[in-house]
């Protein structure tokens, strides 16, 4: 009878879901970093110091999510999976915040770090120092080098980080949802 059919899923199915989510995060984070490297190395869009800092979350997410996917497939305890996903959520939300800060600096909403968006100081007659500074090209954090549909790369980083954080939160929920 149709009423005898239950729609409960086995715990192994939930672990597989968590593994799929973790693998998707690893692939998306790797694709994001590959895109950043493509812009830098092929299109010659040089990253500023804030751009480089925004990559750290992806450098964490790629191996951690890959390990979580492997752990889920191997039947790791749900606490381990949920903890790993929680770390991903925190890192990716922090990265979204950093990206939003960077986008705000680009739009002129607030002052950015002085090492990449402050005023350029003339050191007077310091000939050798001035010559050295003239040879160094500082990539400014408050100047957008590339926009698409009104968003800079920092803006797209916010969207990607938020999407991956939501996916990681969903994965944590799947890992925590134990079926009796």
Spell out the blueprint of helices and strands:
Blueprint: H1 11-41, H2 49-54, H3 56-73, H4 78-107, H5 114-117, H6 127-135, E1 147-148, E2 151-152, H7 153-176
Antiparallel strand pairs: 1-2
Helix pairs in contact: 1-3, 1-7, 3-4, 4-7
Description:
- With 180 residues, this protein is mostly helical.
- It has one domain (9-113, 131-176).
- It is built from seven helices and two strands.
- It has a two-stranded antiparallel sheet with strand order 1-2.
- Strand 1 and strand 2 form a beta hairpin.
- Helix 1 (11-41) packs antiparallel against helix 3 and helix 4 (78-107) runs antiparallel to helix 7 (153-176).
- Mean pLDDT is 77; it is low at 1-12.
Strand content: under 5%
Largest sheet: 2 strands, antiparallel
Total strands: the figure is: 2
Q: Taking all residues together, what is the mean pLDDT?
A: 77
Show unreliable segments.
1-12
How many individual domains? 1
Give, in order, the helices and strands. Answer: HHHHHHEEH
Question: Measured on Cα atoms, how large is the radius of gyration?
Answer: 22 Å
> Strands across the major sheet, in which order?
1-2
Number of helices: 7
Structural class by secondary-structure content:
mainly alpha
Share of residues in helices: 55-70%
